Each structure stands twice: as structure tokens, then as C-alpha cells.
Amino acid sequence: MHTLTALQEKFEAYFDRRHFPAHPSTLYDPTTYFLGLGGKRIRPLMCLMGNELFDEILPDAYPLATAIELFHNFTLIHDDIMDKAPLRRGKPTVHAKYGEPTALLGGDVMLVVAYDYLNRIDSPHIRRIMHRFNRTAMEVCEGQQLDMDFETQDSISLDEYIHMIGLKTSVLLAASLEMGAMLGGAGEANCNHLYQFGKKLGIAFQIQDDYLDAFGDPEKFGKQIGGDIMANKKTFLMIHALEMADADSVAELRRLISTNESDKVEKVLAIFRKSGVDAWALELKQRYVEEAARHLEDIAVTQTRKSTLKELMHYLIQRDR
Question: Could you tell me the maximum CA-CA distance found in the chain, to the nearest angstrom?
Fold first, then answer.
């Protein structure tokens, strides 16, 4: 079994190529620029891990992993447009650098090339893989729409938020594992457990991300604390605080949401701590981590074959950055 670092090196060696034609450069250079911004490539690595869980890593796993990474980057380009985000990984977003029309076309062509990579797969399991890929693509779009819908709603329940996060973030992590496993010939029961492992892990990851945005160390987290609070995002923390805080605190939270006071973050965090939101978030994250671990345990392969997935779980959940 490969370590996480070894898998990263193997995938980067395959992925480090030009995926688009040279002309017209006004269309294809922006997409190449965006891929060059880097990233951890977690989703394609999960595809390789899912494959290696049941087989040696097959040659077809690399175009499948590439299709997943290109699809993910397509969603990021379009998300940046919808969010009007000027930066991605500290660099100008595609629409900020090249204009919104080019960014839209660049995202579209990235999706087309993703399907071209899927078309290179020569496997008896390709129909199952395509079905999961297409279903996941629709679910990610559904999650993004729900996220935008939530911006105009006064109140969101925790269940609604978890459902949205599951679609927007977790299903692609889960599907990346499952499609790799399908390629390796895994049965339905093992695929289901692996999918649920990825989905629960993704939700735990998002809970932790919300937590770190509010309570993390800015030097380790890599960005200013309280960004979600300043943007008035309905995170796990804000939803729970509005449900659990006393009446005066809820009234103060609602007032703060509509303001841009210089000490807004400090005031909101004080209410979060008073309401026990910080401890609750860590407990909720741990619950999803334990659910993910149970699904991993139930996959019918030897424990040694699960070592890289356990390494991944530790990497994602124990991060403080």
C-alpha cells in the first residue's frame, strides 16, 4: 500500500501536463493558469485510495482521478464567479484576471475535458462509474443552489445545513472513493460503506473548517479568524448559537449580523462561547468522525489495506491550518 505522500507524487507526475489545446490561447491559457494554482488534490487521491483498497492501482485509475480533479476545478471556477471572489489560493481568480465570460467558458471546457478523460477508461465497470459521476455532478450543483438559497433565508435548521454541506462538499469526496473502488471490482456492500465513510468524513471536515474559522490560530489556519462571521455566513456555529442561546443573546446576534462593527467578531465569539458552541462543534465533529470510522471498519478487506485511508482521515481531521 502506498502512503499518502507517495500517492500525491504518483498523481502529480501523471497530472502535470497540459490538458487543453494551445489555441485559442484566450480560452485555454486561463484554464491552465487555474490548474497551476495548485491545491492538495485530495479528491483524485481518494480515487486512487479507493482503487488500491481492492486491487493494485490500475492504469485506468489515473484518467478517472484526473476527470474528478478537472470536475472539481470546474466547480471552483464557477463558484468563484457566483461568490464574486477576487482570490483563490492567494492568486487572482479566473474571472478577476480574464473576465467573467472567459471564466464561464473556461469552466465549461474543463468539464468537457473531464468527460474526455472518462472516455479513455477501458473497464467493464464504466457504466457504474459514469452513473455515479453524473449523479454526483448533479448533487454538487444542487448543494451550491441550496447554499445560495440559504443566503436569503432568515433561519436555517441544522439538518438543512448538513444536507446542503453533504451535497456541496461531501458527495464528491465520497464518490471519488467509491468510483476508484468500482474500478477495482468492489462489491455493492463495500462500495456503500466506502461511500458513507467519505461522506461522513467530509461533513466532519466542514464542521472543523467552520470551527477553525472562528476559534483557530490564525498563524496555523492561514487566514484571518472570523471571516465567516464578517461575511454573515450561516455556518454550523451560527445556526447552533441561534438555536441554543438565551433570548438576549439571540437578539444581539441578529443585531450583529446586520452590522459591520469593528468589534463584531469578538462580540459574536463571546456569545458562541457563552452558549457552549465551541465545545458542541468539537463533539459534533467527533460524532461524524466515529461514524466514518465505523463504516471504514465494516469494509471487508484486511486492516493493512485500510492504512492509507486512516492516514487520510487523520490528515483531514487533525489539521489546525
Answer: 62
- Helix, strand, coil distribution of the chain in percent, nearest 5: 75, 0, 25
Q: At what angle do helices 100-118 and 61-83 cross, to 10 degrees?
A: 160
The rounded distance, in Å, linking the Cα atoms of 129 and 173 is 14
Q: H or E stretch including 218?
A: helix 218-221
Helix (H, G, I), strand (E, B) or coil at 87: strand
pTM of this prediction exceeds 0.90? yes
Label the pairing between strands 87-88 and 91-92: antiparallel
* Residue range 78-98, pLDDT digits in tens: 999 998 889 888 899 999 999
All cell numbers assigned to 140 = 454538487
Say whether pLDDT at 187 is over 80: yes
CB 183 within 8 A of CB 51: yes
List pLDDT tens digits, range 29-63.
999 999 999 888 999 999 999 999 998 999 999 99
CA distance 260 to 91: 26
| Residue 92, phi then psi, degrees to nearest 5 | -60, 140
